[in-house]
Amino acid sequence: MEHIEYNIHNLLNLYATVGKPFNGYASDSAIGYSRIQDSEWPNKIWSNQKLTPDVLQNIKILIESSQINLRFIDFEFDGRANHTLIVQVGFELSNSMPGMHLKLTKPFETSIRLSFRMVTEMAEAKIWTAVFKQSFGYVISEDLVLKNLNKIHFYIAFEDSKPIGVVKLHLTNNIAGIYSLGVPVAFRGNGYAKDIMHFVLNKAIQQGATVATLQASKLGQGMYERMGFKIDFTMHSYKLKTQ
């Protein structure tokens, strides 16, 4: 159960961290959200308490009144799903991702074919966001990257001088949240994602992390499982049927 809490806390802390510089984060005892103009991420809204029809109606109202397109996220664990209730209020499922963790006990083998650069200025932020868009098909703004360099580590992977992948690392205490591990389609099938993952996990270990957490895409889940990551819960993302 503690790994679920670590994972969700790291994720929601990431949303809070990136939203605050844009005055786009708010949270109370019932609902939290993080939204950023001109960026397609994170733009999420969630419940901070047990989900009820009243809470869902308030979430629905906030989404309908927002000029930024928000997605509602809900976490399923121990077989407790809120899907029926959420659909009844007017939402439909967009996607689902398993939340996973890995205990960090020893360093990982690293590849000499790749070099890595942590983003520190505008030119690198442009490269990071461009490779991210090529990998995932949506936009994280350069401004978001630049305003969070002192809190989140954004890395670019290069083969020779060619950028072939990105990842970001968010640390909360001894928990390392791994996000945005992406390799553009043109470079997939070469084992780059595994090399990038080993690199960022080693960076996390160097900074004192003892557990890594992530939410896996279908594309990456098999690789993470082979590395030893365990599934703890499922994160469901919903949109309004009218969106």
From TrEMBL:
**Known CDD domains for this protein?**
NAT_SF
Ranges of residues in domain N-acetyltransferase? 114-243
- InterPro entries in the record, alphabetically? Acyl_CoA_acyltransferase, GNAT_dom
SUPFAM superfamilies with a match to the protein in the record: Acyl-CoA N-acyltransferases (Nat)
A Pfam family that the UniProt record links to this protein? Acetyltransf_10
Q: Which Gene3D superfamilies match?
A: 3.40.630.30
- Matching PROSITE patterns: GNAT
Tell me the domain of life.
Bacteria
Protein name listed in UniProt: N-acetyltransferase domain-containing protein
Q: Which source organism?
A: Aequorivita soesokkakensis
